[in-house]
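Quarterly update from the structural biology core.
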Amino acid sequence: MKAGLFPGQGIPAGTVLDWLPENDSLVDESQMTLGYPLRRRVKITARREGALLATELAQPAIFVASVRSWRKTDESHDFYTGHSLGEYAALVAAGAISFGDALRVVRVRGEAMNAASKSAPGTMIAVLGMGLEAAHEIATAAGVQVANDNAPDQVVLAGPEAALERAAALVGEAGARSVLLEVSGAFHTDAMAASANDLREALESVDITMPRVPVISNVTAEPYGSADAIRELLVTQLTHPVRWRESIEHLWTQGARDFVDLGPGRVVAGLAARVTRDLKKKEVPVGA
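Predicted structure, tokenized:
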């Protein structure tokens, strides 16, 4: 069985631009909906090699690139899931929300998260070579929060810079390493609470139905059960960890073996491979 995966926000501007071609009908529709030249703004940032897009621009740009990529594929998928922002593209692919409505919600989400980041400054670090339990203990000791459980050996912590410095020191003492992420806020933590009302209002203003194909929620690591649950869990996701490892594990238990990164980039395929690597080792061969 095949699962379609959609990425989150941390994609370089140059990569996003490659997935937003000129004279494309979906890009043109997006720019009309947003009321600004999306591709041109991405192109300006992409002039700096490796630069990431600002949150309020990154979210609509990556969402549009993701949906365009999905529409261009001829493949069908048995499941969908997305990492953080990627959930919105997953819900479009599964028929739960229209592209235009989702784009309008994503714009509000990006702007609200950007505003929350300014009122409660913070950032994020990736912890490599350490699992969730040990990372959670360090987060508690340092006064930060677990933001992403990405793979058996990769967890992301988020919080104020000074507290993350303490966390990074503890990670080093434990024999693992940490990498500072180029983001503008402590996403998926309490710091994003101020963005919840705006997102809730935006979600309540659009039509959402049950997905035609199961979509795995970041918050529960299980399929959405109703349209109301989609609205509520997308708001909850702002301040709760992305349970990516558990989401991939759930898909594995449901029979998924082909994990397709629908882009832009190949970040989520790489994370899925790190999760399934251990699962493959545990799998008992037929006839064994």
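Residues 123-180 form a domain with the Alpha-Beta Plaits fold (CATH 3.30.70.250).
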